[in-house]
Structures are given as C-alpha cells and as structure tokens.
Amino acid sequence: MDDPDLRQECEGKARQWTSEGGVRRLEGPAFFFHVNHHNGRGFSTLATRAGCPTRGFTRWSDVDDVKAGRTINDHATHNGYNNGSMFKDKSWTDIEDTFAAHTLDDLGCGPASPRVFVTSARHPVENLLTHEAFKQTKKYGMMESCESDNVALRLWAGNVCGPSKRRDDCRVLTRRDLEIAKARARKMDAIFLVEHPVTFRLGCTRLGWRYCPTYGTREQYSLNILNQLDNRSWSELFERHKLGLEFYDYLKQLSFDMLKEDGIRVPTLEEQQEALPVLRSLQDAKKKAVPDGPVPRQDANTSSTRWQCR
To answer: Which domains does the chain have, with CATH numbers?
Structure first.
C-alpha cells in the first residue's frame, strides 16, 4: 500500500502556454514558494517589473482566506494586486510558509486550472555562512539553532521544528521527507538557482519577463559564524545536511533540465564548482568572511524576516 503522504499532488497539472505581444509564456497565476534567504524578494521585484500584480509575505492562511471569500490585507502588493488577483492569470503570489499543514492541492491546480509554480534554491551549507544566518542564529549559536538543520528541506517536506528555535526541538528527517519534497519539486515550472544566475533566464523563457539579469549579488559571509566553527563542526554541518544536499542537487538538476529544454547553455561541472569557492574548506571560508556589524533588534524578530524552521 502506498504511503498517503506520497500521493500525487496537483494530479494532471500540465504546462499551458500562451502568447502576449509576441512573448510566449506559461498561462495561469504564478505562485512562488519562498525559502528564506533564497532571493525571493529579488524575484518578486522582477515579477513586479514585468507588470505582474504581485504580493509578498503571503502565508497559507491568506490563501485559505481568499478561497473562503475573506478579504486579505494589501501589504507588500504591487501593480494593483487585490483579493481577486491571487488566482488570475499572470499574477505573482509569494508564499513564504512551510508545507506543514498544506499541500500543492490547496492551490486548486489541475488540467482545467493552469497554475505556474516557481521557486529558488541555494546550497544549504553556504546559506548558513552568511551574515543573515548570523542574525537568525545569534540567540543559540549556529550549531544549536533550528536554522542550522535543513531549513529548505523541512519547508518542502512539512517536517518543521518547534516549539522553540533550538535544534533539539527538530524531529529527525527521513528519506520519506526527502521523497515528499522531491515530488513537490517535480511540479515546479521554473527553478532559479542563486549560485547560477543563468537560470534567471527561465523568467524570460517561461514567465514572459522581458528583463532577466544573469548576474548575482556578492554574498557577505559572517566572520562570527565562521569563528564558531572548527573542522569538526564544519564537517558536522555537511553531515547534518546530507538529505538537504541531496534535495539541493535534485533541484539543481531539475533547473538545468529546464535550461536544456529552453535551449540555454547549462553550466559545466567546472563552472558549478567555481560558483561556490567558499565551501572548499573552513580555511577558505574564513578568508572570505568579514566582521558582522550590529544587528538591529527588529531585523531578526519580525515574522517577515524570521526564517521558517518551525
């Protein structure tokens, strides 16, 4: 008997294409699944620039409210986004929430209801070396914070930590969690890789955007974080993210397959390795780190900036 958690979500979902002003794009409202510190704000800005009605900071409760006919606030909306926009063609809704209590089926997808699913990915250990990770883990330290235990995989699988933000409140991740996450990832129509800006071109080949930058921003790595680590804890981070790294590689391959489908050159193995020089060794990472400035109290404590590990 099949595990019910591994059932097919959005069964029958297929890509439906349309053309507008000579520009080919996928038809349907777009939903961006926002993993913290994966450049979600940047991609929402590009969607806004493309003329899409956009909404940021969306929770699944907002989706439930729209479906029930309840009014949601207009916080972080652009280009006239309102209650009626969420399920209209060419809108962009940034869902910054986990799958702990919802599935893709809650977006009403199916053969008769085209939906465009988009996300972004980045290397899970590299993400933990950043200044933003320092802000998020300042209370308990990197190795004891829930943020250090597979934030992305937990979001996609719905296996979150809690009630506290300590890592010892995180349930063990299993291969079933990985397979749940991978099944959802296969429903994505565009996957942007933060380390490989060439994948941003999928916004032009699939979403109808006219502007798709192929350069990234220079990441700031945290000296405070790196000073907390020794060779043993450095190795532990990679071991802790064993399933998360497998999920990242899976997302990367899905994204590269999309590039191939759209006639875009895929980064070579050498280029992929060069994209993350900070991960060569702890010593290399420390050479690239810079001192962290003071963290404003509100920066890591508002619901809109707090990483979703619980």
So the answer is: 4-300 (3.40.50)
